[in-house]
Write a structure and sequence with these properties.
Length: about 350
Amino acid sequence: MSTAQSLVTRELSAATAAATADILSAAADAYGRVDNPDLIRDAADIAKTFPAELLSACEMERGGIGFRVIAGFHLDDQAIGPTPARWKDADPHRTADWDILMLLLAHVYGKPFGWSGQQDGRLVNNIVPSRGHEREQTGASSTVLLEPHTEDAFHPGRCHYLLLGGMRNHDDTGTTLSSVREVDLEPAEFVELASATVPILPDTSYEANPAAGALPAGAASSAPVVPTLWVGEDGLCLRYDPAYTPLDTAPERYRRAYGSLSTELARNARTVSLRAGEVLVIDNDVIVHGRVPFIPRYDGTDRWLKRINVRVPGKDRPAAEEYEDGYGEDVVDPLSAHPVYSERSTSK
């Protein structure tokens, strides 16, 4: 375990891990799999039965660095089966306990959700390397550096917390983390980056979105421009995804400030090797995350993560976000499975 990882890791006692495993096993026996509508309806109440030590371990420091590792959950490498070749090939029965854990932990932080155009709207996603996607800036890539970014930065309904669960990581492939609260910028650079100057476009993991990754020639100027930095209720926040930000449309002074921010985020980067049975909790308004390159084997032993998005109703973000349309990408209401972005539709 790296020094940075040990400083933010909460290791559960054997008794708490066993008690949590009993809750997950009972839920799996009762509901079968994580997408059971009855489980989705009951999940918030079940999460309240978690041991006190686990609930305490989940607490994030207000105004803090922005991430936490929760360790000590039991995961059987043989029982979960081989790493799937594609996200849609994962067997929901073999990983039911872990999927349910992700869903219940999400309810500790807020309200979990899926995306209509990503992994068929599923609440719990599978992040695995996939053939043909090795060099993309998406979770399916492998051989290139996945650049630090805010999760789903293009969308006003993006998560407040991102939870990543370690299923398999035999090679200790690192997840990179950088906190905006550790950057050192000139006052003029803060002012520049707090102005709404450039848009952020959807990434290519949104297969159903015709705007994913690019806009038609000359159309970038019609996309909504957004600030990179703002001050939230508990400190400095950011919205950052350089791979999908058309910086060539920005003034030179903005590009220089953006470059300074990127340099600072790189300078303060940490690497966490998320192992089986560990959950990484990321404050998506504070931390940008990425992944170091690795060579996939495609033999069933590659790195495999679970992912779930969480929104916190009422959590502070710039008011102008209420008027963004998210490029037509919708948040999926887990209780109805219908696309809906309730905060935007009810805020006006």
